[in-house]
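I am still getting used to backbone structure tokens and would like to learn alongside you. Please make up or recall a protein chain and show it to me in full. Would you write everything just below, so we can both look at the same thing?
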Amino acid sequence: MKAREEEKKAERMAVVADAETSAAERRVRTTARHLVGIQTQACAAIGATEESAAVAMAVGGSGQSEEDDPYAIEQDFVDLDGIDEIPLVGTDVDLSEDYVAGLNMMAQRCHPETKLGYVDTIESGHILMVTKPASVRKVLTSSVQHFLGGLRPPSAAFFGHKVLFILEGKEWLDLRNVLKKSFQKHNVGLMSEDMAWAAEGFDAILNKYAQSGEDLDFMRAVGAFHLNAIAKVSFDYDIGAIEGFEDGEHPIEESFEYLLEELPRRSYAPDWETQNDFESDNEDNRNMAKYSWQARDVIRTVIRKRLAEIEAGATPRGDLLQKMIDVYTEDYPEARGDEEMLTAELGDNLVEIMFAGYNTAVPTSAHALFLLANYPEYAQRVKEEVDTVLQGRRPTMDDIKSLKFCERVYMEALRLFPPASLIARQTTKDVELDGMIIPRATRVWLPACAIHRDADSWEDPMVFNPDRFASKIVRGSFIPFSDGPRNCAGRNFAMYEGITALATVFAKYDVSVNESFDHSTVFTGFGLRPFDFNTARVCMRLNVHPRQDL
């Protein structure tokens, strides 16, 4: 141990003593020397001397053959220890008590210039933490490989092994192309009609609680609105989440809530069996199978019904499901009419799409309403914009570009409470960050919770100020939808749903924070959710009132 410490000290002193070498050159040379022996693709040293470029190139291998998957990457850990510009910022222990607080603390410990650091973990070795916007952008736009760690086994057990969130390599690319084509705006022309239908049901809930004066859990109310909207838009189905709101959790809501509670327990458990064994016959696995089937059963039924309609010669509705079927069967004709194949390849993805919005758009809308309840001056501006633009009707997709302030409120809620507090990647090619070559297969953490509140990128970062989005923001400083080829395919829908929720509330109502609501947040492993300390549960307890100015 002592010898290793002396070696580290000597390496650092040698780098510091190299006074004639520029900072960029020194970083490249230090990184290259340190990473010699790691097999990775040949890398180009940007802005480096001929000598350091040669050293950096020596790190690389001969590259992949054309027959290999272009996205397949090595699984070797990359050792980041001993590089001055990438200091050790924390370990697993720092995340054990409060995950988000731990991420924020580690982000503050990153190098003041490079804004890089590394986390030493038991399971995944050294993980590079990246917080500078320019570097964040480079990682996200150059790398498509997820780094899911312990999230992968329970996610696969619940959603299946063919969902976009889990797939990697060519399988991911093929399915991504199917979903990207299906999500294009001209393929979802029925969205405005379907969203307005769901908003009517949401308004009915608001009206009931406005009349009764009872506090309303906006997490559940917005969640019911989301499930009805996404089901209607995606596959023309009334899922009944709003109609059954007073009866308790909807079956899909119950399944998603189960997953959000079970996921962190099984993903971060200290024993291998809890994390990875999803096949043994035990109560945990039986529950996982039960709730997984409960969420998928509706989708299987809908796909079976749609295929029967097509077989009977009916003209199918041009919704998301049909677009997915059309695009997928165009590339894979053998899947036409195959219920099992379409369910595995597309149906499970519909469940995951429903869950993705439930886990991200729902808490964001709830937080936006919470923020407006605390800032009545901004709530007044929302009401004025909604009255002027909509004049009593529901917003269409075309109205979104006119509801500028509503959009800024939603974006600011995403900034302050990013549902994806941490984005994880594994570099799929060598990437240059601040003069250093970060080799292929490096595991990377991008802590959105810290990046979104970095004072170097945001003026008064802790203050709720929607108007900050009136100006162009620096790319890489705001990543609620990620960036690059693996960004959120449902971004347009999420924004439309969130703005519709705000417009539906403030067209007729005001909101205030319930006096007994003690707001905090909890991180589930999948996302950040509002939490009430007084009731010790995930919720957003607000009061809704009829607008006095109407």
Q: What stands out?
A: The domain at 161-420+480-546 is CATH 1.10.630.10 (Cytochrome p450).
